[in-house]
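Schema walk-through. Below, the input block comes first and the output block second. Nothing else is stored per chain. Lengths vary across the set, and this one has 219 residues.
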Amino acid sequence: MGQKDKKEGKKRRDESPAPDDIKKCRFCRFPLLVALLQLLLGVSVTAVAFLMLAISPSLLARETPHWAGIILCLVSIVGFILYCTTYLPDERTSMQFIGKLLYFILCTIGLVISVLVVAFAGHHYNQTSSLSCEQDGDDCVCKLDKTDPIARTFTYKGVSDCGEITETLTLYFLIQIVLNLVQALVCAVGAFIMWKHRYQVFFAGLQIGSPSSQQWQKV
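--- output ---
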């Protein structure tokens, strides 16, 4: 009797969702939309950053956050790899485990970086919107307070029209704020999905020798 129960338990374990899930694409397990959004936002942030850099080479790296967009592109690539990886319950493959762990870490890093970019872009947006600029040859010289002789001065080299600083650059900072806010939300969603899939969703099945007739189910 006990041997029969063991055989039935083993048979039910073999009928677990694992074989069915092997044949299924990753689309049902990983939201492809998250990876696509990360790729689009990463490319957009990078493109806007290079447009800002084209205005003046004097802009610093924190003012042109192309690095944040490139990191998000890398995160999305890991997401696509995870999407293409054959799903197995309980992370039975090292490829799946490494992909999920790496994606979670990169999403968390992307979230932190996006928040930092929003802070920098917000500061520079507020700063450039209150600048008073004058043309000085091929450069544009700007001051925070035109009436203050000791006010901080910013020199933007290679700018033939100061309107590009007070108007165009300010608009680009505003766009960066919006893009990176959305980017931070998408990274938070991606990290939450990986955390939820790892710690809140698991397969519960029968132990070998269990007389119960209950099948495997996802809870």
